[in-house]
Amino acid sequence: MSAMRFFALTSAALPLALILLTSSFPATAAEKPAAAAKKDVIVEQADTNNSPKQHLDQLFSQLKRERDPEKASGIANEIRMEWNDSGSATVNLLMQWADKAIEEKRNPAALDFLDEAIALKPDYAESWNRRATLNFVMGNYRKSMSDIERVLDLEPRHFGALSGMAAILSNSGNDQLTLKAWERFLDIYPAERTAQEQANTLAEKLAGNRI
Description:
About 70% of the residues lie in helices and about 0% in strands. The chain contains 11 helices and no strands. By secondary structure, the chain is mainly alpha-helical.
């Protein structure tokens, strides 16, 4: 898996109103099943009270605990899905246009779309991350790193941005800082095998250099 694969590496739920209906008369046999059904519905809907941020926090907590690589990958994909929703229909459309332009190798057009998305919603981390990816592909490493730093300001747990940082630092030959970037990645996403291999290889290399 290349470093670039890492790079590419909901609306808020309405509050759940719990209304308890009480009666001074005991329920009849016919009424009891209906009451039980209502109770079941309330139990099933209780989790919908979580906001998108709370849901994301729960996913990151699961990702940190999960040691099975396949299960962890599924959780990471859920996190990416959350990141892909800016909360703005216009920004989401600009991101889709940018992705299509990137696929068609129309990089200048893609940059224009991403610049506009960032201007419309500067606190949306994924637009900065997508532009960091594109700058990396185009060989603009300094601009890519600048965008990555902005991503991590907005979302310090963005493992895709951290892998991109590691790729740029690796290209510059800075093994110590590259290792630190992978260690930060693994603190968030410990089950990712390629990140483990990269970190272990660098750790061994640096240990050998100290002998």
